[in-house]
Structures are given as structure tokens and as C-alpha cells.
Write a structure and sequence with these properties.
2 domains, homodimer, mainly alpha, about 180 residues, DNA-binding
Chain lengths: ~180, ~180
DNA sequence: ACAGCCATGTAACTCGTTACATGATTAC
DNA sequence: GTAATCATGTAACGAGTTACATGGCTGT
């Protein structure tokens, strides 16, 4: 029963565990609101191929609806899907996080960048970081206090703290680059 | 001249910009010491294929050495390679970091995990985080105060601060899960 | 009428991994 | 002599992306 699926597949099953009966399109939207910050938001095309595969594995089932001429497919977790998800969650250990940090990577080669560029790179990063934070804050606000989304809220708070500490660290780095 | 290479290719060029005349094997070791923490450490096989490609693009050149029966290939940056690397570094903006955080992803679905498991997952994460930190600290120590590696040292310090703030946040999360 | 969103998919391709394969050199 | 490390590659595969392709529904 513990067939190896990619983490992204489990992530999609997890989204279905919250809002059952979603279309591929809606699933992508949910992914943009949550997965994007802690994992990745798969491309639309991948969502659809993934759903097809999960259906073949009988982890989700699909209902075809017809509204006028348009066909809409809504996906639900099956019992097998729910079991597979819980088994994955119970299977330790969780892998160590992977960080792909282009700004850190570039700063590593700081001696090849001119000083002004180094500083403006960090400034630009601070700006995009602030933007991201606003986006995550909006998601956090939308979750409110509802017990049903207590864990998503907790993780969103974690993410916000991370953005804050990153902001502080980069600001300090920026200051160190100032004095030269 | 600004042909699009993958970020990992530039990362390898960057490593060659520090220690010129490295073998594929040595390059992999350097990657394990630095890139691993902020980007990814490519598999050995990828290092070799990447070097072959970079050579075809004339961004690196290769010297074949013979020591007894063994053939060793040492790679150096060419002028074109150095230029391509600098151009990439000067080409803003740097992309936003990507975080793949399996622990956060799982906690998102915390309602599907039993409370004991939730706590032990965070405990295990704290442990591997401490381990990682020791590894990065060793790298940092090896860099010392030398001006030639000032930027790698700066980035290593940044990474250490990140591990520390992550430790603090997870410890706090762990505490919140305690009271239930 | 037109824009923007909803909705679903296929095809080609790239990046990167694991598994496979080989063998020399060095230190104990 | 034998284990660890140095050294280089090929083959098969998987995960994920972008580009391509289509078309209905909704609000103004």
C-alpha cells in the first residue's frame, strides 16, 4: 500500500483533504495560496496530469458535471487516498528542507560584483521579500481563528516569522556592505 | 553572449572562479561544502555532464593530466566563462528563493496526524537542524578571516543565523503543540 | 462585442536523480 | 591484501516546466 508517490502528489492529496470536490483549476488556486510558500505551486498542466494519475491509482475519484456545454471535473479523495495520505504523514522522518536561494548564491561570489550592484541586489531582495510577506499575510488573515484551519494558520504564522527574521538578517548584511 | 544557462551551471562556474583548476571530483566536494546549503549539490554525474557542456560552450577549458595510468581532467574558467559569469551576476533581479519544506508541508495537514507524532516530527526536525548547523559551522570555521573568502564567510554567517532563527521558531511551535 | 476568468488538456523539452559500470591510487 | 578514496563516465528515468491548443461562461 505504501507505493512511493512524489511529495507533490501527497501535497495535492492534502489539499483535497481540506476542500473535497475541487476542480483542477481550483486546486491550482489553493496551491497558489498555500503550497507556494512552503513547497512549490505546480503548473496547471502538472495539476491535470497528476490528477489523472491519482485517479488511475484510485486515490481520488472524479465526478463529471455538465453545465451547459462545459464539462467540469470535480475530484474527491477516496478511502484509499485518505489512507495513503495518512500513511505518508505517519512515515518519518520528514526530509530536510531544501533552500534554493539565488541571492545567497550570488552574494557568495560577491567579489565578482561591483559594490553598488551588491547593495542594490540586497535592496531589491528586501523589496520582494516585503511583497511576499504581504501576500502571505493576506492568506493568514483569510484563515482567521477557525479551528478547521488551525494548522494552516500555524504554518502561515511560521512563514511570517521566517520572512521577518530574513528581513532582519538581510538588513544587517546590507548594513555591513555599507561600510566599505 | 548572454545565452541562458541554468543557475546550477553558473554556480559551478562560480566555484571555478574561486579555485581554478579543479577536477570534477573536487568540484563536487566544493559544492558539498557551500552550494549544498544555499542551492543544491548536484550529483557527481551531473557535475561531469555539466563540465562537458560548459567546455563545448567554451566557458571552461580542460587540461588532461596523466599520473601513472590514471587520467585526471582539470577545468579552468576561460575569459568567455568569466565574462558570462559576471554578466549573469550583473543581470538583475535575482529570482525569489524557493523553499521546499517537508516539515511545514506536513504540519499544514496536522489534523491528519496524531498529536504524539506531530510533536516527535518537530523533535526530529530540531535534531537534524542542529546537525546541519554543526556542519555549516565547520565550514564557516574553515573559512576563517581570509579576505579572499570574505563573501563565502558572510553567506555562511547568514546561514548560521537562519538555522538559529529556525530553531527558535520550531521550538516555539513545539511548545504550542505541547499545550493540548 | 469584448475582456477576463474558468476549464482542460497534449507535446516537447530540461534538469536532475539513481543505477550501472569501470578502474587507479593511497593508507593501513 | 584490502578498504577508502580518487576519478570518470553512460543509461534509464522522473518530475516539472513552457509552449501550444481549445473553447465556454460572465460581467460590463
Amino acid at each position: 500500500m505504501s507505493q512511493e508517490l512524489a511529495t507533490t502528489s501527497y501535497a495535492l492529496l492534502g489539499l483535497l483533504a481540506f476542500g473535497d470536490g475541487l476542480t483542477g483549476y481550483e486546486l491550482k488556486q489553493r496551491a497558489d495560496n498555500t503550497l507556494r510558500f512552503y513547497w512549490v505551486s505546480p503548473a496547471m498542466s502538472q495539476v491535470y496530469t497528476e490528477l489523472t494519475r491519482l485517479e488511475q491509482l484510485a486515490l481520488v475519484k472524479m465526478n463529471t458535471e455538465r453545465r451547459g456545454l462545459r464539462t467540469t471535473r470535480r475530484y474527491h479523495l477516496t478511502d484509499a487516498g485518505s489512507t495513503a495520505l495518512r500513511e505518508w504523514l505517519a512515515r518519518p522522518p520528514a526530509e530536510f528542507p531544501i533552500l534554493k536561494h539565488p541571492v545567497a548564491l550570488r552574494l557568495l561570489m560577491g567579489h565578482l560584483i561591483d559594490p553598488g550592484m551588491r547593495r542594490s541586489m540586497l535592496d531589491a531582495y528586501l523589496q520582494s521579500l516585503a511583497q511576499r510577506r504581504i501576500e502571505l499575510q493576506a492568506v493568514r488573515d483569510s484563515l482567521g481563528d477557525e479551528p478547521a484551519v488551525r494548522f494552516p494558520a500555524m504554518v502561515a504564522d511560521w512563514g511570517l516569522d521566517y520572512y521577518e527574521s530574513e528581513r532582519a538578517m538581510v538588513t544587517e548584511l546590507r548594513r555591513r556592505l555599507e561600510g566599505e
